[in-house]
Amino acid sequence: MGSFFSKQVERRKSIHTQKKLLYDLKEKTSSNFPGSDYRSDDRKNWMSTLALEKLQVNQIIWPGTHDSATNKIGIPFISRPFARTQSMSIYNQLVTGTRVLDIRVQEDSRVCHGILVSYHVDVVINDVKKFLSETQSEIIILEIRTEFGHDDPPEFDTYLENQLGEFLIHQDNSVFNKTVAELLPKRVICVWKPRKSAQPKHGSPLWSAGYLKDNWIDTDLPETKFESNMKHLSEQQPVTSRKYFYRVENTVTPQADNPVLCVKPVTNRIRPYARLFINESISRGYSDRLQIYSTDFIDEDFVDACIGLTNARIEGKL
Q1: Cα-based distances in Å from 183 to 71, 170, 192
Q2: SS3 96
Q3: Where are the beta strands (DSSP E) in 147-194?
Q4: Which helix (H) or strand (E) holds 157?
Q5: Could you report the per-residue pLDDT of 168-227, keeping only the tens digit for each?
Q6: Does residue 272 have a cis bond before it (omega within 30 degrees)?
Q7: How far is CA 182 from each of CA 160, 177, 310, rounded to the nearest angstrom?
Q8: Which stretches does DSSP call E strand in 114-187?
């Protein structure tokens, strides 16, 4: 028992030390980066407010959400706090400016996060289609994967094609160098990541798993995650040289051996440092590698940081 408490004390010290390291770095670092003062007047249509004929797919800093469809997961006040990473519906996330969705499904096509389940994926698709019907020039990256430990929903690729067919941008490497204006009226890049079923092939309406990559590590230590994100970002090719999307997630994850198991207080150890990460990636020379930037509990400030940096790229300020 004494060993257990000793480990917990050391763990709390490590968390405190790492939070202080990020806080001190933020205090001594300028918060200004190209586009940092940008504030969108219309986040629902933010791509439309930029120069669509100049905005190439590989230039966009895509604001994304981690475990996007968890707003109603589990049982309220009982299991939900342990798995909920977003408080807004998919539709409201899109209206707020989110453009990359991370959806996990199980065999019966219900959204899940580990062993906890939520609504049927139809809710996600209907929210996406509602948003698309109300906008004209917003491109969405919709990543759907079979959750670890589950089998693929039967004929799920057919389901996605039937539901989103008119909007789907087909799998094609040339898409990365195209502008948003050139892709319209097609508006959804749907990456389907099955566990056992065949991957979508070149030319398919859906995109295969290799087109959306990340280097996720399972930690609740914020500075450890911050520096891991930076290290893996540094190892990527510039966005203009690669034919896949690369995601950085400004998140940390509750650990089973730690007393704090609810998502929000844990992920809040790193959430305030989203702009710091952007600033540090620029100062360390990695700004040309940033692409998808995701978070838990997305907010308007996070979205504005991504839009501002995107606009700076278009204007040649980055």
Answers
A1: 31, 10, 20
A2: helix
A3: 188-193
A4: helix 156-164
A5: 999 999 999 999 999 999 999 999 999 999 999 999 999 999 999 999 999 999 999 999
A6: no
A7: 23, 10, 18
A8: 116-120, 140-146
Of the two residues 2 and 290, the one the predictor is more confident about is 290
Question: How far, in Å, CA of 195 to CA of 230, rounded?
Answer: 28
Of 40, 111, 3, whose CA–CA distance to 311 is shortest? 40
pLDDT, tens digit, for every residue of 29-52?
Answer: 888 999 999 999 999 999 999 999
Do 51 and 314 touch, CB atoms closer than 8 A?
A: yes
Q: What is the DSSP letter of 1?
A: -
| Residue recorded with tokens 């004390």 | 9
Domain boundaries, the chain: 17-314
**Phi then psi dihedrals of residue 304, to 5 deg:** -60, -35
DSSP SS3 for 42: coil
Does residue 78 contact residue 67 with C-beta atoms inside 8 Å? no
Both tokens of residue 70?
């968890």
DSSP for 208-268 reads -GGGEEE-------HHHHHHHHHHHHHTSPPTTT-SSEEEEEE-----TTSS---HHHHHT
Its CATH class, for the domain covering 17-314, is: alpha beta
Distance CA 115, CA 63 (A): 27
Distance CA 125, CA 104 (A): 13
Answer yes or no: are the C-beta atoms of 237 and 216 closer than 8 Å: no
Tell me the β-bridge partners of 214: 247
Average pLDDT of the chain to the nearest whole number? 95
E strands along the chain, which residues?
62-65, 100-105, 110-113, 116-120, 140-146, 188-193, 212-214, 245-250, 292-295
- What is the tens place of the pLDDT at every residue in 118-158? 999 999 999 999 999 999 999 999 999 999 999 999 999 99
What tokens does 118 get? 């939520």
Kindly report the length of the chain.
Answer: 318
Residue pair 157/206 in contact (Cβ under 8 Å)? The answer is yes
